[in-house]
Structure formats: structure tokens, C-alpha cells
């Protein structure tokens, strides 16, 4: 078996080729939420299959009711090596609003960033760049005698739409997929550009769309305006009542299962060098919004939310139209923490809306997924080894952090496969994921690849 | 001079050809609010110029900063004949939502309706069909020795966007356009399918668009959700607060200048055979909304409103997107009555919005026009003669009604030209103007043409 130093040297030597391979993947517009891109999702899955096969691993793109899931298997040289499951996703968010991109979202390029080159493209950070750090680490091992661990690869294509096909897929392939002892999940971030992070708390996510309908058809607002109910007004009033003056979510019982932050966690977070003013300035704001009296870190990592992600009704083109719309709709999302029950949140939300419907207005609900929060156990042996490996690469201790985003797969691993997950990723806060001009630092990509090499070696030791 | 009977017989004989000419005009998609249809608006204006010239009248399409205005002049045979100004508009509302049209909106067709044929197309009723009733009445006079009145024709192409170019045009052409003693305006409706109407009250219209902006760019609702202000929430709360629980508009001072209905008008309206339940059923509703304790007729004709005509923010495509939007916008309209001051309403509205903006949220306002309400004097000689002419055609007295829609030109005629307007039109309540599958009854078109012949003869007598 080659030394870790040899493997790291291989990574360093091949970084340009690794970057070009990532560019190939970024060129595929695998937008999962829009049916127009179904074929592109299939292309991305096939591309990953070929990459794994090129490393000598078995790999297949397996159909699901949605987009395909890529499963691959690689064997370590050592018979008694540990078995790990590596998870990533190849799907990306829609690139809109397109007019705000400086260059084409699916034409990746390098630009000079703050002290490092940056890879710019939709999916550069979320999650194709992160996914490829692991694949490129494996490639370096293969060039030096083989992997130190057995690895099962699981790449899905529906993460951005709440992973609807995954639970059934895990259940149907439980024997095959539950063999590894630990999952490695790369869909998270560094604490900052120089400090790696391991995520130990994840918020859950409930997504609900509501369509309100009033009159049987659109009406002239002059000839009918006054006695005719306007669904936009009804929807707006409901949204306006969803938060209290103090910024709390007003659904009755919403905070059932929301714990106050334990003091040991609170203390560690206080020691993090988080600059609230700089955070706000970076996104064009000056003041902490949301729940009165709670800071940014606490709100994003450990507090639940309700946000409207989209709203539409009536005429939205240029100019004006004197129309009384027959319908209005909005997409809501709830971020959950602690033991908040996603099913109950959905029920509470539906009741909240229904109680506020005037006569002659009906509500249709469309669910876009529901998953609870995750809290990982401290102090496992794997966590200790991973922290040490990251400290060796970055020269500083990894922060143990929360994450405001959901990674439904981590919940599914625990629930369906009985498997804990080590969440290590190299994304940065300013990567503009889900926004125009998404980027991934070349340092994240390069040292991320080196980090995975060290973690694999550490877990195999 | 031919007898009125001969002129009416000519109209009856030529009704098919008249309908085909209207179809030609309906085929031109002259959508004024959308810059993509600018050329089509010019085409519609040119078409009208050719029609008037074909009748032997002088006519021109005159440029404005917006869409052209058609001006024509026709002389009566008699030297001392009265001079009238006939107004109509050739522009139409956008046809969307297109998927709800049974056939193409700009491919006019006849369908069998309730007891009459119906002309189906965008603009059939509002206002191309109505406009052509007058042109076809003139044509019948020309086939029988000429017009009994001098007529100035004024066809504009921006009625559906609040007639922005018209005031300046009237001012610039005041000498030419203020010569007629009375305006005839055809953009109104019948009381019902068998009872003609003359409109004596018109609501005013203020249209304001608001764009709220928060963070500098769209953000991931997981990675940022909680402490970051959401402009959709802010906009929704403002909209939710614009009405009281009793359905009144909550802008302070909004009801300044709103009179209670005079008893004589109220009595006449009570005698109208208006079926509230049937009205509501026709648009898929069961209950009178809006201001508590006020009926449909009173609310639409004599009460002011505030309606959101459109709202949009965040992701509105298929599926879900976990985005915290950087902006949200809505189009508002206010219908005004009595002496409500449009300028003050705009100021009150801006103040109402600004007072409700949290730190870090800004508002941009875009005005789409503002005009006050109109109340026409009872009992003028022209009104008496027109009522008699309509009674002769329809066999019943014309109802004197209000109208919930605005006709800014009527205010401009009064203000800029010192001219009253006789508002006579043959639209029906179920014409679905501004909605998919707009139609105009062939009876309205035919007997409307006959009605104008009778009104012209009566005013000349």
C-alpha cells in the first residue's frame, strides 16, 4: 500500500485533469425539478456510471419513478477493511433568473476569486464539485495500489426536489445498501475558507404548495370589483398571519418538539468567529430579521422557520391589467429542528389555511416533500478520526456545526438503513448555491479531494 | 334625406357584411399593454383609417408617444346639423391565460348562444364590436343620402393601459376636437339582454405597481432561512392589512369624497330587476363579498375598491425551489367614486406601504395611470332624445345606470374639451371582457347598429 503522502502527491499532480472532469459534469444541465430536463438528468447519471467504471468499479444507473440513481461498488485491497457508503447528488437547482448570470450557467469556467481560483457554474458547489472531490480521491488511491476501504457509491438525482424516489429505493435495495457501517455525505460546508467543518445537526424540510380559487374565471376588476372575493387578498392575509410581530411562526403547536439549545453546544458556537454584521452585509442587509432576540447562527442551525418561496396570481406581465384573478398560489417551506413532526406540521398548516378561507374560496394543497430534522451523536470513533484527518490537512480543528438546509438522505440512512452519517463538505457560505453565478473554490475542490484521501486512510487505520 | 325606416332596412340587409368587417378587425391582435404587439396596434389603426376613408370621410392615423390615435371627420348633408364626437378604442386586453380559450382569441367565429348568435374573440365586446356598431350605422346613412349629423371620429389604442397619450393629444388638437357639442361613447353596456342602458356614473381608476426588495440576491432558504427578511412576507402583510374585517379599504382618508348614494338614484336602482344570486352564480360564487352590508349594484356602481390584479415573487415554476427571494411585486388598482382625488389616493397608498416596510426592505412604485370618477348631469335634452330613440328600438325604457369600470376619456372630454358624453353601449354582463372566450352578442351588434342610427336621427331632429 502506498503512503498517504504518495496519494496526496498524485492528487496535486492531477488537479487540472480533475478540474476538467468536473467541468464535463457541470456542462450537463441536470435540473431535477423541471420535466424539460429529464434527459439531462439521465445523461448526468450515465456520465457518473462511466467515471466509476473507468476506475474499475462496478456501477449502474438504476431507474426510479423519477430520475435514476447511480449505484457503484469498489473493493478495498485489504479483506478486513471497513465498508463505507458515499452519497452525493448529481441534480441541480434551476438556473433562473438567467439574466443575472454573468456567463452561461452550464458553461463552467475558472475566475480569479479572493486568494483562489473559483469554478463558476450551476451545481459547482451544490453538489457536483463536492461529489467529485470524493471520486477524485478514489482515483488517486487507484493510481497508488487501490482503496483502503470498501466503498458503495450512491448518487441520486432528486435531492433538489426532496428526494421523492429515494426512500422506496433504499427499501427495495436494503440488503445491498445497508452493508456499509457508515455513510459519508458531502453536501455540507466548511466553517470558513480556512476551517473545515463537520455537520452534526440538520434542519428538516416540509414543502407545501397552496392554490386558492375564487370566482369561476378571471373577471374585469371594474365591472366586478367590490363584491367579488379576490384570492390574492385571501392568500396574502394568510401569509401575513403566519408570523407573529416577534417573528415567530404562528401555526398553533408549531414549536412542539423544538428544544432550546443545550449549553455545551451554545458555548462552542459562541466561540466560533462568526461576524453577524459581515454576514448581513454580504447579502445586502443590515439587521438580523426573523425571531426577535435570536442571532443568525442560532436561527439558521437550531430554529425552525416558515418561508414563502414563491407566489403568483393574476397578471404579472408588463404594464397593467384590470383583472380580478380567479386564483392565486404560493409555495411554502418549513425548516424543522429537534423532534418537530413533519406530518403534524403539514396538518397544522392545512388547518391554518382552511380556517382562514372565506365563503367561496377553496384551497388545493400539493405536497413537495416532508422530512424531519437530524441530530447526530457526538464522540463516535469515526467522528474523532475524521476530525483528526481534517486537522492534518487544514492545520486547524474542524468546527462541529449545524446546517440550516435539509439533507433528507441523512434521515433516510438513519431510519431505513440504521446508518449514521459523517457529513463533511467543502462548500463556502458565499458559494451562491441556488443563486445566479454559483461558484466552488478551487481550493475547496483541491484540498477537499486531499481531505477525503486523509479521511479514508484514517477510517481504514 | 331617406327615412329612418330605409336606413334601418339597409342595416338589416347588410348585417352579414357588417359582421365580416368586424371579424377583419378582430383578427388584428392589438394588445396595447405588451410592446410585442406595437405593430399590431398600428395595423388596427390603419385598418380603421381605411374604413372611414372608404365611407368618403377624411381620416388619419396620428402618431403619439404610445399607440396611434385615429381621427376622422364626416360632414352632414344639412349645414346646420349638430356636430358629435364619436369615441371608441381599437386596443384590447392581453388574451392570457391562453389555455382557457376554446378557440384562438384572434380567430373570430360565431357560436350559438342563448337565443342569439355570439361573436367570440378577444375584443369582440371590448371594444371593437361596440365601435363598429357606430361605423356600420354611418355606413347605412351613407347608402341612403348621407349623415344627419356632422361627426368627428376619435379611436384610440391605449384605453386598456389607462390612455396615457390621450390628454396630451386632446390638448394639442383642442381646436379641432372641441368643435363637437357632445361626445358619444360606446364602451358601456346594456342593462340586460333586452333593456338598453345609458351610463351616468363611472368609477375612476388608480393603478400602482409596487416592487419590494430585500437581500441583494436570491438565497437558499435552508442556508439563510430565519434571520433573512422575506419580501413576499412583507408584501403579503401589507396586502392583508389593506382591508378591514368589514371589507373596507384601510388606507387612512380613503373614503374622503365618497358620497352616500342619493335617495332618488337608490330608488331607481332598487326597481331594476337585478338578481344578486344569479349574478353570483354566473361567476361561480354564492355570497356577496366586499363591504359588509352593501349589495352588488351599489358596490360596483357607487363604492370605491382596492384590488390586487397581480402578484409575483420567488419561484413560480413547476415543483419546488428552496429559495428566499430577493424581491416580490404586485399590481394594485383602486376604483374611485364621487370626488375621491386620484393624486391623494396615490400618496396615501405610497405612505401606507412605506410605513409598513421593515429595515432592509425598499419599495419602488410604478404608476400605470390615475383618473377620478365621473358623474354626468341628469335631464339634458340629448339624454332625453337618446332615451327615446333607444326605447323605440328596444321597446322598453333605457335604464340609467352606473358603471364600475373607468372610461378615462370621458373625464378627459369634460376636463380638457368641456364636453359632456353620452355613454351608450350594447355589451352584456356575461360578455367575459378581459377574460378567456370573450364574446359579443350578434343581437347587440345588429340592434346596436340600429340604435345608433336612431340616436343620430333623434339628435339631428
Spans where pLDDT lies below 50 across 5 or more residues of chain A: none
Helical stretch count of chain A? Answer: 14
- The total strand number of chain A stands at 18
Main sheet overview of chain A: 9 strands, mixed
CATH topology of the largest domain in chain A: Aminopeptidase
Mean pLDDT of chain A: 94
- Using only C-alpha atoms, the radius of gyration of chain A works out to 23 Å
- N- to C-terminal distance of chain A: 12 Å
The largest contact between protein chains, plus residue counts on each side, is:
A-B, 99 and 99 residues
Give the overall shape of chain A: globular
The CATH architecture of the largest domain in chain A = 3-Layer(aba) Sandwich
Percent range for β-strand residues of chain A = 15-25%
> What share of residues of chain A is helical?
25-40%
Give the CATH level 1 class of the largest domain in chain A.
Alpha Beta
Category from helices, strands and their pairing of chain A: alpha+beta
How many domains of chain A?
2
Quaternary state of this entry equals homodimer
Assigned CATH superfamily of the largest domain in chain A: Zn peptidases
